[in-house]
Amino acid sequence: MPFSHAFVPRKLRPGRILPQMENTPVSIRLSNEVVSYFRATGKGWQTRVDEVLEEWMAARHSV
């Protein structure tokens, strides 16, 4: 086998395209009561916490 055939380029398999991150990862301390409540709502509980905070901001901004 010729040397040039030893390094045949492999087909590239398309990987998963990662979405651009719109959120900023943070560490925040919340009361056990708040965390328990939102976790009990099931998958997506962190998104719901974010939605509640956005609603709070909107209510404060309109004042």
TrEMBL record:
Domain of life: Bacteria
Stored InterPro entries: BrnA_antitoxin
Protein name: BrnA antitoxin of type II toxin-antitoxin system
Lineage start: Bacteria, Pseudomonadati, Pseudomonadota, Gammaproteobacteria, Candidatus Kentrum
